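job 3f2a | input accepted
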Amino acid sequence: MTIELCEQLLLELERSISPVLSYLQPGISKSEVDGKLRLAKIGVSFPDEVYSLYGWKNGINDDTDTRTLGEQWLFKLGIFCSLDLAISNYLEWTTGPSYISKTLFPLFESGGGDYYFVETNKHSASYGMILYYSPSNPDLPGPLLFLIH
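job 3f2a | predicted structure (149 res):
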């Protein structure tokens, strides 16, 4: 089902002549995803939908010097991180001064400090849910807000 939804999204992006199309990278296999996570010593457990998402496309390429934020958005305030960039962000967020739980893995970013994380703890009631992190948004009750399951 996830691949079909991704293909529908791709058709809509093509129909609307979205600039993000030229930045989306080819998908990567589950074994490639797992290999990169293992190499980075990251022990998360992705739900099948995340593997499907990276199997569809591996986010956008990381050369962002000449692009506006809007050109990179897959959806409003949603830049689909390549797995390499997501791993780099994960390592920074889970070990740096702005500590985020090691069970949260970044899938999308806004380009302005907001992130969409997926819960990767299989024992959590929120496993597979997407959480929105906006440290500077005064309209949110806290930095994390459950959005999608």
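job 3f2a | The mean pLDDT is 85.
job 3f2a | closed
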